[in-house]
Structures are given as structure tokens and as C-alpha cells.
């Protein structure tokens, strides 16, 4: 991403409409406004985003419990894809997690989502398991990925 004019920040309730709109564009089983609202009210739930001139270009949500985090969603608006935004966002969020003392990262990803798999494995995530028929819309398997964030601190 050669364009560094994206603003990185933690998102909150004031970003709810933008989150719901981007969610509907990016996911077949989109979270509702109520689901986002309930999550944002919890202290262990985080959403970080990249904005371009005030428009939400991408967001990543995760849950943080003790020394672990689970990535729940990473969404990039179609108009901003293929520009390195997802990679930049993931890198910034993982760096924040390291600063928060988080040591381990987990996530589930569709087996067919080759772009997401390339992104995550590029950061060092490894596959640790499979959840058969996990996704309700098409019964696709979910691959379980893991990253030891302590190894990133030493790089």
C-alpha cells in the first residue's frame, strides 16, 4: 500500500452504522447492528479500522482474554481491495496486541478463502485444525489457524 493517508484507530459505537454497512457488503451472514452493539459494550472486544477521508475502508475485530486473542472478522471494502489494506490493518492490530501483552492469536477461515489464507500465512499463522461443515450458509469447512505473537516480537 503506497498510500499512507489512511487513519488507523479503534472503532466504537459512533462507528456502528459504518461497520454494519461494510459488514453487509463483505459477508453473506452479516452481523446485525444489535450484534455489533452488544460486542462493543464488552471490554474484551476490540474493533480497529482504517479510514480514508472519513470513510471506513477496512476493519478487524477480535476478542481478548488474558494472553490470547481470537480474530473474529477482517473486512475490506471492495473499492479498497488489492491495495495492501488488509495486510496493513492486520500488521497494525497484531502490533497493538503485542503491546497489550497478548501472546497468542487464533482464528477460523473458510477453506476456500485463498486470499485470507495467503494473508494470514504470510504473517506466520499455521493451521492447527479443521472444523468440518462449520459455515452455515454452505457447510464449508473452517481452517483453524494459530500464531505465536512472541515470535513476532523478536523479528
Classified in CATH, the superfamily is Gcn5-related N-acetyltransferase (GNAT)
**SS strand fraction:** 25-35%
- Binned, the helix content reads 25-40%
CATH class: Alpha Beta
Number of helices: 5
Would you identify the CATH architecture?
Answer: 3-Layer(aba) Sandwich
Radius of gyration: 15 Å
- Average pLDDT figure: 91
Within the largest sheet, what's the order of strands? 1-2-3-4-5-7-6
Note the run of SSEs as H and E. EHHEEEHEHEEH
Mass-distribution shape: globular
Largest sheet, in brief, is:
7 strands, mixed
The number of distinct structural domains comes to 1
Low-pLDDT runs of 5+ residues are none
Fold and architecture overview:
With 155 residues, the chain is of the alpha+beta class. It has one domain: Aminopeptidase (3-Layer(aba) Sandwich). The chain contains five helices and seven strands. The chain has a seven-stranded mixed β-sheet, sandwiched between helices. The longest helix has 15 residues. The mean pLDDT is 91.
